[in-house]
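Reproducibility note. Readers wishing to regenerate the assembly model reported in the main text can use the exact inputs given here. Chain order matters: entities are listed in the order in which they were concatenated for prediction.
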Amino acid sequence: MIAVTLQTLFSHWRAQPVQCATMIVGLALATALLSGVQAINSEARAAYAQATNLISGPGRVLVDRDGGAIAQSDYIALRRAGWLVSPVIEGSLRWGDTGVRIIGIDPLTASNASPVAQAALQSEDSDLADPTAFLTTPGVLLAAPDTAARLNPVAPAPVRAVDGITPGLVFADVGIVQGLLGRPGELDQLVVSQEQPLLRSELSTLVPHLALRDSDETNDLARLTDSFHLNLTAFGLLSFAVGLFIVHATIGLAFEQRRTLFRTIRALGVSPRSLIAGLVVELLIFAILAGLAGTVLGYVIAAALLPDVAATLRGLYGANIDDGLSIRPLWWLSGLAISVLGTGLAAASNLVKLARLPVLAPAKPRAWALGAAKGYRALIWCALVLLATSGLGVLFGRGVVMGFVTLGALMIGAAFLLPALLQAITRFAETQARSVQAQWFWADTRQQIPGLSLALMALLLAFATNVGVGTMVSSFRLTFTGWLDQRLASELYVRAEDQAQAEALTTWLAGRSDAVLPIGSFEAELRGLPAEIFGVADHPTYRDNWPLLAQTENVWDVVADGTGILINEQMARREMLAPGDTITLPSNWTAQIAGIYSDYGNPKYQVLIGLSQLRLRYPSTAIEQFAIRTTPDAVPGLMTDLQDRFGLDSDAMIDQGALKSFSMQVFDRTFTVSAALNVLTLGVAWFAILTSLLTMSTMRLPQLAPVWASGMTHANLSLLELARAMFLAALTLVAALPLGLALSWVLLAVINVEAFGWRLPMFLFPSEWGALVGSTALAVLLACLWPAWRLWKLPPAQLLKVFVHER
Amino acid sequence: MAKEKSEKTGENMLLDAREITKTFPSNQGRTTILDAVSLNLDTAQSLALTGESGSGKSTLLHIIASLEPFDSGSLQLDGQDVGPLREPARARLRRVSLGIIFQQFNLIPSLTVERNLTFQARLSGRQDDAWTRELIHRLGLEDHASKYPEDLSGGQQQRVAVGRALASRPKLVLADEPTGSLDEVTGDQVLTLMLDLVRDSQAALLMVTHSDRLAHRLDQRVHLRRGRLET
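Running the prediction on these inputs yields the following structure tokens for the assembly.
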């Protein structure tokens, strides 16, 4: 019986190829956007994890409790005490125009499970062990084949290609890397072997300043980029939700169209269970087909967006992600799962409704539409509950996930209110209409709302997202530009190669610039998270320009005399610190917070202390960077002189303009992905409108034929159809505007604060909204034209059929 | 057939409806559509059910077809008590024991004529190719077997519907105004075909009709007025 039922159900699609395509394309789009984003995320996360796995695999490592460097003497002491540990040092280097992350290892003490250590011990020409070349100067650098090919002409040592290494990562002997990074005698981690001798001294007595951690816990990149990936996932989910609206609408219409078929076959003896089973199988086949198409499309989207994501992650977090996308079997499976789950979600309510309906009920005219109308009250209640949830989330919610729950509740709640709003407006218009034609127009428009409501909800969500994210990005850009002007007040920034050069530079620059402001910095761990500590000179450059958000009295005086420090906004918000509070810095310095400054784009905690305090409390910190004040016109000449006299390359000097332009470039690339997903989501919503109108146009004939027979022309009917769809779309866009602004506010005031730790002021950009409304309205008009044109050209015989056949 | 006949019980009895009552909710509370209607029908007999619009004819037919539940009374169909049956069992009863012909044909628009005609027979696993061929021949559908319903006239569509109802050799054929959508000549032709085929297949027939003229072509007649049966 199932086979016959299934054959009959499928025969419907033979006569409805457009609808069939709609169903598959809608589901494929929904799957594509989400699986594409998931692919990007998993590619990045795999890259973060790979570096750890290449060195040691999952296990435990020793790190400095304050986040600083480990002395090589600690390593030697541990080895002598019997501990099987292996040293690791990491840093970033640039050779030519290629930036790399370099990791130093000791292949002789590294775990046998480390593929890099194995490769290091082999000679280049054979599998025989020959560590000589790797361990002795100039050493051998190991990198992925592509990276090796790029580096070989410019690197200071031969580069050997090793498959399996993340592109952009370079491995070398720990001693060689210490030399290359200018950090002799320093290490970052000690990988602790899983097997240890029974007799060994206690770590707490041997190296009390070191802490034992899981290796994945020390993966700073994974922790730092969590919010970034969560944002991407949220966008993917939004696109998925919009796609589901299409699928839900298409499935709903397919059920509506087949109501007579369901009635007939059930009357002829198909049991409800068989009918539901047949429909489930039918939907499953659609889901698998669409899932495969969607996953392929998702791959294309991910491949197109990955270079921008990689650039963002590189610019913001220093993470090296390969621009190329690898296809993982799990990804195909998850694409299919997304599609099947999406179809299930979209079809569930229709299937439940069908299972509960008596045999004859589905054949009642427009049973589903009437059902939808009856459901408005429930929908309004749901909307109110969701909006209340969103309000409570704003007032009491904490954390990024709660932020997105707040956002989701706001968006879905508003979407649920839309049909009732449109009903109320059209009902009011109907009461005001005087002519028969106008009365029919409004009454008929109201009748169309159930059929179009899902597509209109999708449009509402997509448009509001575009307005919201657009406003957020533009507000951020405006704030960021002003902030850069304040933060980068100095005209030139110079980095010396070593302390001797730093001193020579200071002397030489003293007579050739208005001021030379030394900057010292080191990385640390504060309250369990990575942080940077900067020491800056006491100078009007900072006093007049530094972007302070909150401060105590005489803030710069207390920073200069060492009784106060400044922290960045993200640290203040996450740790709930305010001016007047105290924090403990490395070397057990408990300092009072004198001010909080904005620090957009920095994922790490940051502390600013007086230069004198840096010298006093952290004497080993190299002070090799300088901010130089001079007139902007003098910068090019000064740079040439510095290059000639000190041999500084272009990486060691950067002028204010170049730094600002680089920062803006990173900023813009960061939001390229958001913009692309925005446009794709709007495209999906446009597709929803088009397909809903096309599908409905085939069902409209019984309603239009009597009006045509009463004397209205094809042309009149077509124009009214066009006007009706445009009117509903326009109302939706008007409703979406305040929703978009609310979304923007939540993004700026809730999500950003929770995800990144900074709050931004919100600015309004009416001209941007105008352009967006115009382009969206044009797109909707194009979607409406096709069904209207088809109606215009419909042969009278088709309309006459309405009167001779039941439809 | 009417009340007095409802007392009769016999081995040949196919349909036995007793005291069937059906009400619907309305503004005035509940409106009674069928008021203690009793009816029976033997194997290979035909019965015409007449009545004005709104008299409850179609509702009674739907109840006998187990498409709609009833409030009180009992209904025996082919030896089965329909009242307590759940929907899956009712569906089985419909596909195995009944053939239904609707006024509006209700063919499946996406299936060819031949597939429409054999739909229920395949559904019940009782497809008989020789019988199908005979039906197609006697219904004059040879040239239309691979066409779709939208390509056929109303008379042709109703002939397909008749064929579909008989293809699975049901014991009881229920016809709801089968010629109501056709002109008189075409309607007569379709009815003649239907009666011949029903007779030849040894099925019983219960036909709802407005027309006394058509009703007189069946073995027995009953009239429904305001939910009550008159002989």
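We highlight two features of this model. The CA atoms of residues 2 and 274 of chain A lie 6 Å apart. The longest helix of chain A spans residues 436-487.
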